[in-house]
User: Fold this.
Amino acid sequence: MTDRKSRLQRNARRLRASVLVVGAFVVGASYAAAQVVPVEIETGDNSLFASRVLTSGLDNPWAMRWGPDDQIWLTERTSGEVTRIEPTSGSQQVLLTIPDVYTGPQHEGLLGLALHPELLQGTGNDFVYLSYTINNGTAEAPDPAAQIVRYRYDDAMQQLVEPEIVLSGLPAWNDHNAGRVVFGPDDKLYYSIGEQGANFGRNQRRPNLALALPTQDEVDDENWRTYSGKILRLNLDGSIPHDNPEIEGVRSHVFSYGHRNPQGLAFGADGTLYEAEHGPATDDELNIIRSGGNYGWPRVAGTIDDQAYRYINWSEAPEDVDLTANPVPDTVPQFEESSFEADMVEPLATYWTVEDDYPIGAICGYICDPTMAPSSILPYQAGDDGIAEWDNSVLIPTLKHGTLYVQPLSEDGQEADGDPVAWLSTQNRYRDVIVAPDNRTVFIATDAFGSAAQKFGDGLNTSVIHNPGSILMFTYGADGGGLGFASGPSTTQEALAGTGSTAEAPQEWEDPATGAGTETARTEEETGGEDVSVTEESNIADVAALGGPKYAANCAMCHGADGRGQGGAGAVLAGNERLGDDDFVARAVVHGFGYMPPFGERLSDNDLAEITTYIRNNWGNEFGVLTTEQIAETH
Assistant:
């Protein structure tokens, strides 16, 4: 009874919130570039749409579906709730709260949602399929796994009931779990799994299994460890379809492989399965998924062109190798893309392929790298009454850019037709998109936190998002109201270089402790015209006081003002024992590490010494100063 009471109270609170925000909108006096991209991207005419916030207060909405009751069904990643949204008033109703969902900062939680095509059609197939992560370990030593679970919708109770596990023991971790579940026209379920960020950043020593295939013994033992970096096809009871591809002599749930983080998965009207996939720092991909297809990751990012990517297999590096070494030691296995000789399915498009000398990480960190972070995908046909400008395309919402990219397709839908067009750009992180049956009303769900391109003001990236945990509603051909669209042209790296903005990258951030803004260096008057060196004899408190505002300006957007991470974008620094390794810390800030960009050419050695000393002596850390000389020695 207590659980039911709290759920009803929460529903009432949400209903009040949704009524309050129906007319809300964001207005900006000026806007910066909508996003940094290596090529000029056309912007669509956003004046064709009226827009408003439909509802807010959602706990990281992840997947949306249009229900047969003409309401929006969605999953909330961090609360473990399935919620139904009335698409006019925005009122919210919780249909299910899953108690054993394991939630992390960014990639774990309640993810995918698929509605049986006969839901509420009187056939008895009132089923909803969900995917989510659970923890088989402890809070201190998590052992996450993913599973697909079927629920029955009880219309009288207005609840999802009778959970039945369809497939369990699927690989999961703290990064890149993908998690899309879609119902195919062949009455099969399709499920995307990322490679869990293996061989990268905090998972640098974990083997990447995206190209590894299951053995027959593993299939017989229901050991799904090699399902990382795959798209699966399964019967509705979780068994392996008899017509699944036989790959290297083994038939399993694996439908395609060699994927990085395939968060976009959807069928077109003709049965074509489209996929959108996150690239590393370049080469997000738009793919058509072929039965048995090999998509190349981690040996290839995008196409085989040997540009701006090579596979460095850190999982097979010697134990004593420096994981931040630059250049990478010869003892670490390394492979150019052209060395990959297997048959590979080429992407329809990449976002974007750049030359080797592109300044990855050096413009404003990963937000300005040449990727868009595609979070979902939706094929679209305008028909007679739809959005004519979007006809015959796929819609790709993006996390970094807060933009809906509309990618035109060839007439048969089998090729990309030119570059995408940027539409409906706001200062948010777009997670999923659906279009109502009228084919003219578009709904976009936003993350509740995280970093994105800064649209209003003078900066390039920010942790301030304007409509956290919301559903935004855009109506084609309607008048009145509107969100604050950032409708200016995209900005290329060459244009930024001409203004000097690549090195400055100001942020929307203020240090909550000091009130300091985004200055990254003291004035000549403050320093007496000389850069003050940090030495072993320097007073820790004095150096840390200087480093605090610089940390707020350059690091807090990802690592958080309290050192505990900002929405999973950066590593937790509070109580981090690795900060006691002087050489590791110096190399990480100078040369970058994982998603973290290199700061060696953006800030002075003394700035970095002050910042790292602040980090190493805050939030429970007591590791002393890191000197200017130690920073200089890592260049």
In short: The first strand starts at residue 49 and ends at 55. The chain has a mean pLDDT of 86. Residues 65 and 170 are 24 Å apart (CA to CA).
